[in-house]
Amino acid sequence: MKYSLDGATIPIEAKTVSVGFFTNNTTLGSPSISQKFTEKLRDVVSSQTRLSLMKQNGDLKFEGTIVDYNNAPVAIQSNDQAANNRLTITVNVKYTNRFDETKNFEQNFTRFSDYPANSAISSVEDALLTEINRQLTEDIFNKAFNNW
User: Model pTM?
Assistant: First the structure.
């Protein structure tokens, strides 16, 4: 039996969820990107479900790594200068549902955010990470709990 809370379908027998620390396996990016992403996913799961958050071995489990952090020019203007740069982050997520193996998945999720080329990445990275992490965690939540 399953029930729905805010559109999320969660096995009725599931009481706990764990979100492991997502390590940064890239050579770029600030040291805080792992912590920020992991905390955002924990916040989303705990605020949008009735599940108790555990450090490990939850009935439902998220784990993974940050596999790509890419900062590249986009929107090249006529003078061969970039009008915008794009920060792209890819996270590999393994989701385990101990009550329904058909819901398990391991998948990469990628999101990006653009910013003006005349801005230094160091000055906009926090805001970009906030937006990208919001999008990534929404995608991951929907895949795990909304069958998207």
Answer: 0.89
